[in-house]
Specification:
Blueprint: E1 2-3, H1 14-20, H2 36-56, E2 63-66, H3 69-76, E3 85-89, H4 94-102, E4 107-111, H5 123-131, E5 136-138, H6 152-155, E6 164-168, H7 180-183, E7 187-191, E8 202-206, H8 232-267, E9 273-275, E10 286-291, H9 296-305, E11 308-309, H10 325-329, H11 334-337, E12 341-344, H12 351-366
Helix pairs in contact: 1-8, 2-8, 3-4, 8-12
């Protein structure tokens, strides 16, 4: 199969599997135990914490391991009270959009984006004119559908800044350089399975000055931020995946960008095809396009029959039968938005994969 859906999930790296195996078999002790095996397992978690921190330029003690990106996003919102004022971009992942709505925040507004999926530079200023103050701003660093990268630091820079800034960096890590310190954010969500690590593991990076109420309470693990015996093997795998992502970042990024450029060159010859967010800074591995008069989900299934896996957008909202909320926020007309296909490349993809996809796509369109 030609796999072009790496923004949904990546295949686990064999080197990550090898790092995890001892913690599924030999080292099975509880990391909270004081005897030798427990201490060895605790040490493995500490090393993983250092590896993840190094990938995003943070301190190990700022890393809180979670069950994945969705829990990390939900935990980030635990900074809020019922009377909070919240501003989020209108292209956020459902784990932010729905979690905020579920909290019944007294004052919630969205930050608009332009046709390239970038939050408008004046969006926060406009918000402040309406609400006077903000408690939390949440803007994803890179969009999972079209790959558009936001200038978080510039967007949240304000002369009287006294609000918490959260960014969902789940799609960005391992593809572009990410620095928790340089972005000047307070909270950052991460996920393992987007960087060739195991599913079921993520992290929230927390600024030491921020107070977060835990979602799960009990044993006091993760310095009291997240109770429950740690998923040791997955955490070790996340750590190894983070280490590899840091070491191989330049190669992975340039490899995917080379493939993306070749893909977009070929796509430009197809009539009535539009690449979304084309003029925005984008992840090197991501291309989302639409074709007028084409049903995107039907095309996806036809490609699947040809053994090519692509996506129509976010894996968390696929099968909804309606246009992407991200594309709608960008002002894309409904019919074109429903034709959307997302290609997200990975380190194992080749130019041959791209050529075969283009040939297959053109044959299907001709029919």
């Amino acid at each position: 199969m030609i796999y072009f859906d790496h923004n949904a999930t990546t295949p686990i790296d064999q080197r990550v599997v090898e790092a995890m195996l001892p913690y599924l078999t030999t080292f099975y002790g509880n990391p909270s135990s004081l005897y030798r095996m427990g201490r060895a397992v605790r040490s493995a978690i500490d090393i993983a914490r250092e590896q993840v921190a190094a990938l995003v330029d943070s301190l190990p003690e700022q890393i809180v391991f979670t069950s994945g990106g969705t829990e990390a996003n939900n935990l980030a919102l635990q900074t809020l009270s019922g009377n909070a004022t919240v501003a989020i971009s209108n292209i956020e992942h459902p784990s932010i959009l729905e979690a905020v709505n579920n909290k019944k925040i007294s004052r919630l507004d969205t930050l608009a984006v332009n046709k390239n999926g970038l939050v408008l530079p004046e969006a926060i200023e406009v918000f402040l004119q309406k609400h006077d103050s903000i408690d939390l701003v949440s803007i994803m660093l890179a969009n999972n559908e079209n790959g558009a990268i936001q200038d978080i630091t510039q967007l949240t820079k304000h002369q009287n800044k006294n609000f918490i800034v959260h960014t969902d960096a789940i799609q960005a890590i391992g593809k572009i350089p990410v620095s928790f310190q340089q972005l000047e954010v307070d909270l950052m969500s991460l996920s393992s399975h987007k960087i060739y690590g195991p599913k079921g593991c993520g992290a929230l990076v927390i600024n030491k000055n921020i107070t977060v109420s835990p979602l799960l309470i009990g044993g006091g693990q993760e310095n009291g931020w997240r109770a429950g015996t740690e998923n040791v093997a997955a955490i070790v795998g996340f750590g190894k995946a983070a280490e590899l992502a840091q070491q191989e970042l330049e190669y992975r990024s340039s490899h995917c960008l080379d493939l993306r450029n070749g893909l977009e060159k070929e796509l430009s010859s197809i009539e009535n095809l539009f690449v979304f967010a084309k003029d925005a800074p984008r992840l090197p591995n991501t291309v989302q396009f639409g074709i007028k008069g084409i049903d995107g989900e039907m095309l996806l299934m036809q490609l699947d029959q040809k053994n090519i896996a692509v996506s129509s957008g976010s894996a968390c909202s696929s099968g909804a039968g309606k246009a992407s909320s991200v594309l709608t926020a960008m002002g894309v007309e409904n019919e074109l938005a429903k034709s959307a296909i997302r290609i997200s490349l990975g380190q194992a993809n080749t130019k041959q994969d791209v050529n075969e996809f283009i040939q297959t796509l053109k044959l299907l369109l001709d029919k």
